[in-house]
Amino acid sequence: xxxxxxxxxxxxxxxxxxxxxxxxxxxxxxxxxxxxxxxxxxxxxxxxxxxxxxxxxxxxxxxxxxxxxxxxxxxxxxxxxxxxxxxxxxxxxxxxxxxxxxxxxxxxxxxxxxxxxxxxxxxxxxxxxxxxxxxxxxxxxxxxxxxxxxxxxxxxxxxxxxxxxxxxxxxxxxxxxxxxxxxxxxxxxxxxxxxxxxxxxxxxxxxxxxxxxxxxxxxxxxxxxxxxxxxxxxxxxxxxxxxxxxxxxxxxxxxxxxxxxxxxxxxxxxxxxxxxxxxxxxxxxxxxxxxxxxxxxxxxxxxxxxxxxxxxx
Length: 313
What we know:
Number of strands: 9
Largest sheet: 5 strands, mixed
Mean pLDDT: 86
Radius of gyration: 19 Å
Strand content: 5-15%
Number of domains: 2
CATH superfamily of the largest domain: CRAL-TRIO lipid binding domain
Order of helices and strands: EHHHHHEEHEHEHHEHEEEHH
Structural class: alpha/beta
């Protein structure tokens, strides 16, 4: 009889993340241009009327790796474009309420349905975000978007040291009412604008004809870096890269089966991610608490030793 798991897995302590190549002299200079823009004591976020200085949370968010992601998104060609994109994200995070409005209480009505959860890790240690729209019964598209990016932030908190991306697996099986086109467009737009270089891969399977036609129209307008990681109804990928999924259950390889039980999974996820966030903030302060600090250094310090990853790629 398989072991039934109803809580998120602990992240592996050491992930087999692919090391980034060393920067060229030109890239070092480009990075320093962006860094120096934000570390000025007089820096204020443009087009923000009140409290325009960076908060502690925003300073922590502006890590070495964060700046690199925005520079990679512009192919290292234009530091001012990277600066503008970072500032747009800083404004969006405030307006969207990433650090204050998106509380567990705000999204729990969505979470309780079990159509979205984080379970398992990819070969390179990426958290796997599973979505099952067929059991998404709410008619609150704004709250659905809130919940998606609440879970995105929680997935980031579960990334082992050295990991910057997530895997997303969407199973549209038995979907009678597909998400609205506007909801899908909004989610894709937020992801590519404000979470650049965060997608390891996305598998969307059992896509109904109408949604498939819409995606064919929309995906050509998605940034190439994001678009190349999205695969729709690819049977060869499904056969080799996904678990057997049905509703809110996943048959993992071996003798384990995951079952979403909200009263067990939800508090465990919140506790695990809150503890990790608190630990990273404390380590960031211990390493100087500066903009441009390396996550790979302060996240590795005293990192807990946990389980091996569950493959998704």
